[in-house]
Amino acid sequence: MKLLLRSTDPATIAFAQALLQGEGIDCFEMDVNMSVLEGGIGIFPRRLMVRERDHARAERALQDNGIATDG
To answer: Does domain 2-64 have CATH number 3.30.70.790?
Structure first.
């Protein structure tokens, strides 16, 4: 798995996941449960991971839709 996106904005993560799903790219969201530890104030970023072989295509799909990636 390779890091594609890191964000504290759940809407950005959800939009990115929807875009990737539409492209047929599997992704995995990490650090979701950190919000329980932080009290839901959004200080710990969530990470969106993709397979290494899908990374370039996923990065292009997000950037084409105005989402900056960390890749």
So the answer is: yes
